Amino acid sequence: MPLLPWDVTPDVAERQLRRYRQMTATEKLECADALWDLAWEATRAGVRMRNPGFDESEVTRAARLVFADASD
Questions:
Q1: Sequence-separated (6 or more) residues with CB below 8 Å from residue 29
Q2: DSSP assignment, residue 7?
Q3: What pLDDT was estimated at residue 3?
Q4: Contact 28, 20 (CB under 8 A)
Q5: Distance (Å, rounded) from C-alpha 65 to C-alpha 27?
Q6: How many CB atoms are located within 10 Å of the residue 1 CB?
Q7: Span between the terminal Cα atoms of the chain, in Å
Q8: Using 50, 70 and 90 to split pLDDT, how confident is the model at 8?
């Protein structure tokens, strides 16, 4: 049995798992790409919020550092 997310009921987790298993490889890649975009934009928004004086190149540089540190 897979590890269930803490924030959903077991029946919802089971439906989600079934849906993932039904997805084609392309659908899974599209989902992963959308999640990546969401994480990237949320990170950039957080950098902007904490550093209002940054220009866009500084925001991008700082966001890349956040992602680089996440691999540790």
A1: none
A2: T
A3: 66
A4: yes
A5: 29
A6: 6
A7: 28
A8: confident
The two structure tokens encoding residue 50 = 């904490």
Neighbours of 63 (CB within 10 A): 20
pLDDT above 90: residue 7: no
**CA torsion, points 57, 58, 62, 63, in degrees to nearest 10?**
-40
CA distance 15 to 21: 10
Q: How confident is the model at residue 4 (pLDDT cuts 50, 70, 90)?
A: low
Token pair of 38 as six digits: 């969401």
How many residues appear in the chain? 72
What are the tokens at 6?
């803490």
pLDDT at 6 over 90: no
